Amino acid sequence: MKTIGLDVGQKTIGVAVSDAFGWTAQGVTTIKWEEQDFTSADSQLKPIIDEHEVNKIVVGLPKNMNGTIGERGEKSKQYADYLHHTYGVETVLWDERLTTMAAERILIEADMSRKKRKKVIDKMAAAIILQSYLDTKK
Question: N or C: which end of the chain has fewer CB atoms below 10 A?
Fold first, then answer.
């Protein structure tokens, strides 16, 4: 059984999956979706959940720097609730402050072009969210 991590944005969802031991997170893909229709990501997300026998979903919770939850955070909470009810899998919200900035910094340090960064930033952010969660469970 594995854990999946999601970086949920307005237009895309970055996806990462843990190894079977729950030690490491690997970025898998970026799913394009329509935020107003939570079901719009299901056709791509469900096969990943099934293939990896996911038993937990970690959804990044974007908080404001002062710790409050704004509109983006509320949308993530609603989507996490949708995932829990749709897939019957435990769903955890995880503070994702600065993960996209961390992912961007890593990719810049790797000398990746802006065009290539744009394609992988969301799955990298999902991997950082998931790895952060896994690290606290060790």
Answer: C
Please give the tally of structural domains in the chain.
Answer: 1
pLDDT of 28 reads 96
Rounded-to-integer distance, Cα 31 and Cα 40, Å: 10
Q: Tell me which residue range forms the domain holding 64.
A: 2-136
Q: Residue 42: which CATH number? A: 3.30.420.140
Instruction: Tell me the C-alpha distance between 40 and 45, whole Å.
Output: 9
What single string gives the DSSP state of each residue in the chain? Answer: -EEEEEEE-SSEEEEEEE-TTS--EEEEEEEE--TT-GGGGHHHHHHHHHHTTEEEEEEEE-B-TTS-B-HHHHHHHHHHHHHHHHH--EEEEEE-TTHHHHHHHHHHHTT--HHHHHHHHHHHHHHHHHHHHHHHT-
